[in-house]
Amino acid sequence: MNREVLKEKKRIVIKIGSSSLTHEQTGNLNLAKMEKLVRVLTDLRNQGKEVVLVSSGAIAVGREAVGIKEKPKKTSVKQACAAVGQAKLMMVYQKLFAEYNQLTAQILMTKYTMINDISRKNARDTFEELLTLGVIPIVNENDTVSTDELEFGDNDTLSAIVTALIQGDILILLSDIDGLYTDDPHKNPEANFIEYVETIDESLEAMGKGSNSMVGTGGMATKISAARIATNSGADMVIANGDKVSVITKIMNGENIGTLFQAHKDEKFKLINYISTKQYSR
Ligand code: GLU
C-alpha cells in the first residue's frame, strides 16, 4: 500500500501509553516529551485535521503523587490513584496546550458507555460537537468507577473503539516497540519486522498470543485485537515506537514507519457484540 494516502486522512486518533509519558527511572511525567506531543498534535489541528488523543497515565501519575511504589492490586486503591492522577494529567495537558491556544476536553469512558445505546449515542454526539468546535478531546477509561465487569482494561482497545465510534480515518498506537515482528525481537534475533498487514488472519493473531508470546513486550495481542476493531470499522491503523513523538508527523507525511494495518470496512462486523463478548484484562 502506498503510504502517501495517509496524507489525506482527516480524522486522526492517537494513543499514547503510560510508559511513553513517564520517565522509566522515576515514574514522573516526561514533560519534555509531553510538550513535543502537544506541539505535534496542535500542528495537525493547524493543518485542518481533527485530532483525538487517547492518553493513559491516570493510575501511574496518581500512584506517584500519593507515593505508592508498587502497582496497586486492590481495586479501591487503583481507583483512588486514577482519581488523583487523571486530574493531574489533565492539568498538565491543559497547561501545555494553552501555550498554543489549543482547547482540549476530557472524555472518560467505560464499557457501559459503548454497550448502552443512549450513552453510546451521547458520547458520539459529544465527540462530533467537540471536533466541529476544533477541540482536541483527551480520552481515557474512567478508571475511578470501572471495575472488572465494566472495564475495557487497556487503552489499545479503548482507542480502537473510539476510532470505530467516531469513524476515524486512522489510529496511531504509540508503543514502546517499533511495530509488529514475527517473533519477540528481544529473544529471537531472527524475528522479522512486518511493515504492512493487509488482512488480520489467524496466523497473525497466533503471533500475538501463542508460545512465542509478545504479550510481555508491549502487549501485542491487545494491539492486534485493536487492529481488528479499527480496520473492520474502516480505519487504517499504525503501530509505531512512541519514543520520539515526531513519528506522528512522519506517519502522516506518508513515511514508511511502523506497522500499517490496512482498513477494510466490514459491514458484518458488529462492534457491540465484539465488545460484549470479549474478556479484557489488565
Ligand atoms: N486507563 C489506564 C490509566 O490511565 C491505562 C490503561 C492502559 O495502560 O492501557 O492509567
From TrEMBL:
Cellular component annotations (GO), alphabetically ordered: cytosol
GO biological process: L-proline biosynthetic process
Subcellular location per the Swiss-Prot or TrEMBL entry: Cytoplasm
GO molecular-function term, one example from the UniProt record: ATP binding
EC number: 2.7.2.11
The keyword Translocase is annotated on this UniProt entry: no
Top-level class of the enzyme under EC nomenclature: transferase
Recorded metabolic or biological pathway in which this protein acts: Amino-acid biosynthesis; L-proline biosynthesis; L-glutamate 5-semialdehyde from L-glutamate: step 1/2
InterPro entries, sorted: AceGlu_kinase-like_sf, Asp/Glu/Uridylate_kinase, G5K_ProB, Glu/AcGlu_kinase, Glu_5kinase, Glu_5kinase/COase_Synthase, Glutamate_5-kinase_CS
Signal peptide extent: none
Ranges of residues in domain Aspartate/glutamate/uridylate kinase: 10-241
Reactions catalysed, as given in the entry: L-glutamate + ATP = L-glutamyl 5-phosphate + ADP
Residues binding ATP, per UniProt: 15, 175-176, 217-223
Family statement: Belongs to the glutamate 5-kinase family.
Function, as annotated: Catalyzes the transfer of a phosphate group to glutamate to form L-glutamate 5-phosphate.
Protein name as it appears in the record: Glutamate 5-kinase
